Amino acid sequence: MTTCLVLCIILTTLLIPVVVYASVLKRAVTGLKKKQSSLEDKHQEAKRVIDEFNKKEKSMDQFFAIVTHDLRGPVGNTGSILQTLIENPDIYDSDTQHEILSALKDSAKQSLELLDTLSQWSRIQRKKVQINLEPFSVQDAIDIVLERIKERALAKNISIEINRKKPEIPLNSDISLITIMLQHLMVNAIKYSYPGSKIILTVDETEKGVQFSIEDDGIGIEKENFSRILDTTDYYYTYGTADEKGPGLGITIVQEYCKLINGKLWFESKKGEGSTFFLQLENSAVKNQ
Known about the structure:
- By secondary structure, the chain is an alpha+beta fold.
- Helix content is about 60%, strand content about 15%.
- The chain has six helices and seven strands.
């Protein structure tokens, strides 16, 4: 009995360090696994950031190539034509000169609009957008937008129908940002609508604010390009039905402004049948920049 007890004590004495060492080893292994998992997570995060940066860099290269191309044409043509008119003032009759000057005016206006869009985009990138909340009538914002786009619509003989569910819808938000958003959506609809067609702007009051829908029966969007339309890092664009150009920034600007005033943008479209873009806005809903 005494011998068994002695053996038990000896075995216990020998096993205690083994158990302690095994416990320490287990904790060490667990710690190493956690560190390995953490390193793998950091590696994946670093890879994601690098991939995202490379994607943005590629998109920016594409974007600036588009902008440079769109500006070089009008500016270069304007300079050449003006030089010809100055050096040979009698080469064209008065009617032809008037047509040329009208075309130059339109070209200058398009370039100015492009620069204005770039300025909006630049302020967004630099987080310099100022938000000024004030109560206003949605109809006032619509009237401003219609005045800004009427020449574009007339140039393509496109009619614009306003469908209001209520005669007056109040909204407390930033009227300047909202008119810019609606303008981009309407210009986009005109760009991809066929001459002689119709665009329907529907306005409906919601529980928290207002919802706009801009419907056209233009060229529509192919399903495989749906994800690219709302991807703010993909400056996707195509020429309009009258070969209109542009850097494809309009939808991007609308989405960025939505982030600032808690808006929501989505669309429905079918190739060859047109598109409908929806813009939902809330009263006094502003997010921190």
